């Protein structure tokens, strides 16, 4: 299968935010773009809804606590 490149122009802030989200899902922007194209072809429409779940407040609090303790250990 022959591959081709696609260039997308987007502002830095949007790219950073999108990168953060897809990396939280264990992916990269290229993989998501390929999946998006394949799904468009497969479903003959513009689909694809990927989302990440918000981190619970308790988890964020625990992470903050660990960071604070780690600072005292240095």
Automatic annotation (TrEMBL):
The entry's keywords: Toxin-antitoxin system
Transmembrane segments: none
Superkingdom classification of source: Bacteria
GO biological process: DNA-templated transcription; regulation of DNA-templated transcription; single-species biofilm formation
Gene3D superfamilies: Met repressor-like (1.10.1220.10)
GO MF annotation, one: toxic substance binding
Family the UniProt entry places it in: Belongs to the RelB/DinJ antitoxin family.
Entry protein name: Bifunctional antitoxin/transcriptional repressor RelB
Lineage: Bacteria, Bacillati, Actinomycetota, Actinomycetes, Bifidobacteriales
């Amino acid at each position: 299968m022959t591959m081709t490149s696609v260039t997308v122009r987007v502002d830095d802030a949007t790219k950073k935010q999108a990168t953060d989200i897809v990396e939280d899902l264990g992916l990269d922007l290229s993989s998501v773009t390929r999946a998006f194209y394949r799904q468009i072809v497969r479903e003959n429409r513009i689909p694809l809804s990927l989302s990440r779940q918000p981190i619970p407040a308790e988890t964020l609090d625990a992470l903050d606590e660990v960071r604070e303790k780690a600072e005292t250990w240095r």
